[in-house]
Amino acid sequence: MTYVNERxxxxxxxxxxVEETSWPHGLYCHKNWVIDRERDIYLRNAYDDRGETTNxxxxxxxxxxxxxxxxxxxxxxxxxxxxxxxxTVRLKFTKFPEGLLDKLDEIRADFMEAYRAHxxxxxxxxxxxxE
Length: 131
Known about the structure:
By secondary structure, the protein is an alpha+beta fold.
C-alpha cells in the first residue's frame, strides 16, 4: 500500500493517541497526516513555528512507536522554468526508541518516503541530512 494524505479521523485520533504527541509543551495543531495503514506508519506535521518558517516539527509513528522529529530547512531554491525546486533539510530524531537502533536505516527510508508523500509528491529535489 502507499501513503494516503488525509484528514485524521476522530477514531484515529483516539487509536493513535494523537493528542498525546511526544512533543514537549503539548504541541498539537495539525489535523492532517500521511499514513500507510498496511505498514502501520504515519507522519504528521505536529507544529508550525509561525515566527521561523525554516523550523519543522514532526510526529513520526513507526509500527507501534511514536517520537518527535525536529527539522530545519538549511537551504531552498525555488522552481524556475528550467529547474525543479530544491531544498535541504536537517533532521533529528528525538526520543528515538533504543530498541529500534538496528532498524535505523529502514526507519530513515520510511521517513523520507512519508515526507515526500506529505509534500504530495511534488517535483522537488530534497536532500536529507540526519543527525
